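Narrative summary of target 7.
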Amino acid sequence: MKRIVIGVLAHVDAGKTTLSEALLYQAGALKKLGRVDHQDAFLDTFALERERGVTIFSKQALFSLPHTEVTLLDTPGHVDFSAEMERTLQVLDYAVLVISGTDGVQAHTETLWRLLARYQIPVFLFINKMDLAGADRAARLAEIKTKLGSGCIDLSAPGADEELAMCDEVLLDRYLAEGRVADADTAALVAARKAFPCYFGAALRLEGVDVLLDGLDRLTQSPPCSEAFGARVFKIARDAQNDRLSYLKITGGSLRVRDPLSGTEDGGWQEKVNQLRLYSGERYRTIDCAEPGMVVAATGLTHTRPGMGLGQVMGTLSPVLEPVLRYRVLLPADCDAHTMLAQLRQLEEEDPQLRVTWDSTLGDLHVELMGEVQLEILARSIADRFGTHVDFDEGGIVYKETIAAPAIGIGHFEPLRHYAEVHLLLEPGERGSGVQLAADCPADTLDVNWQRLILTHLAEKTHVGVLAGAPLTDVKLTLVAGRAHLKHTEGGDFREATYRAVRNGLMQAESVLLEPIYAFRLLVPDDRVGRALADIQRMGGAFDPPAPQAEGTLLTGTAPVAAMRGYWTEVAAYTKGRGRLSCTAAGYAPCQDAAAVLAAIGYDAEHDTENPADSVFCSHGAGHTVKWDAVRAHAHVDSGIRLAADTVDESVPSASRPAGGAAATQADEQELRALFERTYGPIRDRGFEAFRQSRKKAATLEQLYVTRVRADDYLLVDGYNIIFAWDELRAIAAGDIDAAREALIDQLSDYQAVRKCHLIVVFDAYKVKGGTGSIEKRHGLHVVYTKEAETADMYIEQASYDLSRKHRVRVATSDGMEQMIILGHGAERMSATELQWEVEQAQQHIQGVIRDLQGD
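Modeled conformation, tokenized:
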């Protein structure tokens, strides 16, 4: 009998807990059917949940089907408790996504759908409340297919088998031969997330519940598991006796009572499991051994955290959803702040979307969370758990910061008998990517062990920006250079240098203030649409075309959280209680009124003593501070990286600078320019400046998009010239020129895939009698064979002239004369050696991606 973990998810008021109750009741796990509105639901075990009629904490229940043992996890539907739901996704084998037959796909439904895709969880859909007026089965299915995907299939429909077969080519052939789709094939499609079965019903009336249970039994597969022990922690809680419970799912091997568990967090730890509990609702039974697929609560563990992997499942999963509101905790006069801090830390452990911070300067406690409902629940939890009644201020927004362009940050820490220097490349990341870390520093420059320590220091701290002191996000930090002292360097030295390097880079970068955004759904009476649209525009929001509904007009769109706060009250007032507003966190975007926000915050980066951007150097036997904007001139190491806006500081020693220094370089360029002008006349400034800049070689692949070939550039490659300039290809050409040509095309196709440029490689065919020339599209690049009496040089010269009028063009060749000609056309040159280096960097990047995928 297979064992699976199923989660039930939904937007608020879709009937999720009602469906969970119905599943348990119809499966025989409950003798009495509870109801949310009667405050006797089996899975609403906390008084607050029963009072408010909403799920706040995820719950576990067990039931059996003919061929399946099911652990059911009921998750919160309210957006304020999305983190509780998200961490549950980490341990699910399957999910049941509940959609209201009357409300349809909500903004939060789409958020859930994206999260399920991120965690690669197979999904069954249950469209609930189909017994209510306005629930149209055909219209609802059409909406689901449009918004969630064509793979959502009503298995009870006449053409269901054909729709299933269309999800897979191999299955389609079998279906055409046999005329049916077997359950095993459907189960495989569901497990691969190619098909998403849809069921319709009314959970409160138990309609459609048996059909869903049958589908969960027949159309699911046993999840893979290994012999070695592995587990994923997804929740921390405490029981009535205040015992700490670590909820975890066993993914491989087994876990027995008194087995030791260990981790690398908190400097390394090892603890033994005291007890294993198998919960179903409020009740539990203890077991001696937990097997794969089981979800158990373990006692005796104090270092576990939500998302943590144990055994072979090492590493921690970071949440996607983040708090957007910040409040100061107002304590009663007789309450000690440090005592309350310790108590809030307990709650923080249990709720990953609650962030607790302590302002040591002002002696203030702050909490960050998702919304005002969560704030109300927090106040009640503090009162119930710790007997203290707290209040909160009016609150504010959790802003973040990012950067708009790359920057180099240098941190140096050298008080007497200490030494460390760190160079970081800071680059903008994709929206929602957080802080990414990498290293591209030669081991002969800085020992690998020191590099690992620097990456650890980068990861251990929440770095803040220089505009508002807000957390840094959507940025990539790459270690590019550093130096240690054989005698005086200690671990703490690199911590200081690393922090200062981040800060130094931010002070030089173009920073951007980000604010949280809500995706909203606003249903208003038809006669209030004008007011609603005016409000959205006033708040700086954006909206889709209004959609007529049976109960009024539906408006969907996005707007800043700061502007939407308290708008629920306004909606209720101007619609006289007939309007409905739901909001879902939709990430961060550039702040619309950044100047006013920053003025109100009043942050001064240069006087933030906890986050210094200056460095400490040693002179005459004593340490002294060097201001952040002068650090580069004093640095002991040169990373070799030059950003597009950089100018070379001649006071900084550089191993890559040619003998003779700047004077030799300048003389060399003047000689080249004079030679060019004597031959071809005055040149276009863009061409020669591009030629001068192209001689600076980028030190990392990431740097290429700043100083080298960028996406949408045109790169023309003289094929045979490159073949005979590269040793490896020249050796191949000695035996088989065709093989050398194919090898070059393969390498350039990999390069094009990374750089996303328009790449044209040209081969001479001018001696081919009757040759008319040809152009082939191969592996993302164009391969040109010239016609009779036309050389590759001739083709490239004409192409560079035509293309450079509207595009940025580079030409890769080792032919000096050809380089001069294309410069006159406004194109930019690249030597064979430079192209070979960039191709090698692209191949290393691809290999790194493959290693990462194999590691996953």
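Confidence is low (pLDDT under 50) at residues 647-669, 683-708.
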